[in-house]
């Protein structure tokens, strides 16, 4: 029995399949069995299995170790320097913030002092201390309205202002010479 050849089983013919759509059944043609994959005849030369004895471990040379150590040291030194600069900047910002808070408090105190000094009650008290008295009757003075027939007006030119009483008009000066002295300088 052991020597008897083993028969390979042939796949049986596929049974027909049916698809149903509504009340009608439709027969589906059998699909052929997939063919087995074929292996490539040759293996590429650049790929091979490496035996454990053939493996080479790359080791660091002393020079490479020294260079890596120096690189790590320089990186850590740069990080430490950057942190120092950041801390110094933060200390300076904290100092400026404290100084700003002090100056704002001083500004508010000075504003309060000015408001107290400007208060009408304090001004009246200071006036009384200097010997001033409150009048029984207040009279408000109004300046008189300008008289168009006054001597200092111009003769009919609306764009030219009246003569300034502080500037003396002399016979040898004309209005065009005096006018630039009266104009305000441009800002």
Summarize the structure.
With 187 residues, the protein is mainly α. Helices cover 40% and strands 5% of the residues.
Sequence of secondary-structure elements: EEHHH
- How many β-strand runs? 2
Shape: elongated
Distance between the termini: 125 Å
List the helices and strands and how they pair.
Blueprint: E1 17-21, E2 24-28, H1 62-118, H2 120-129, H3 175-182
Antiparallel strand pairs: 1-2
Folded structure, characterized:
By secondary structure, the chain is mainly alpha-helical. It has a domain at 63-120. Helix content is 40%, strand content 5%. The longest helix is centred in the middle third of the chain and has 57 residues, at 62-118. 0% of the residues are buried. The mean pLDDT is 77.
Supply database-style keywords.
mainly alpha, 3 helices, 187 residues, 5% strand, two-stranded antiparallel ribbon, elongated
């Amino acid at each position: 029995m052991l020597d008897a050849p083993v028969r390979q089983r042939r796949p049986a013919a596929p049974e027909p399949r049916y698809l149903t759509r509504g009340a009608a059944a439709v027969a589906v043609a059998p699909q052929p069995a997939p063919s087995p994959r074929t292996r490539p005849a040759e293996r590429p030369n650049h790929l091979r299995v490496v035996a454990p004895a053939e493996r080479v471990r790359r080791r660091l040379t002393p020079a490479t170790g020294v260079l890596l150590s120096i690189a790590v040291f320089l990186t850590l030194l740069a990080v430490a320097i950057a942190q120092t600069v950041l801390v110094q900047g933060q200390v300076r910002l904290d100092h400026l913030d404290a100084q700003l808070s002090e100056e704002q408090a001083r500004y508010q105190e000075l504003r309060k002092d000015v408001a107290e000094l400007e208060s009408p009650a304090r001004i009246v008290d200071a006036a009384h201390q200097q010997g001033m008295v409150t009048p029984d009757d207040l009279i408000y003075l109004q300046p008189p309205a300008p008289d168009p027939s006054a001597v200092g007006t111009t003769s009919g030119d609306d764009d030219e202002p009246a003569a300034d009483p502080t500037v003396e008009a002399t016979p040898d000066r004309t209005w065009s010479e005096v006018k630039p002295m009266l104009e305000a300088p441009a800002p």
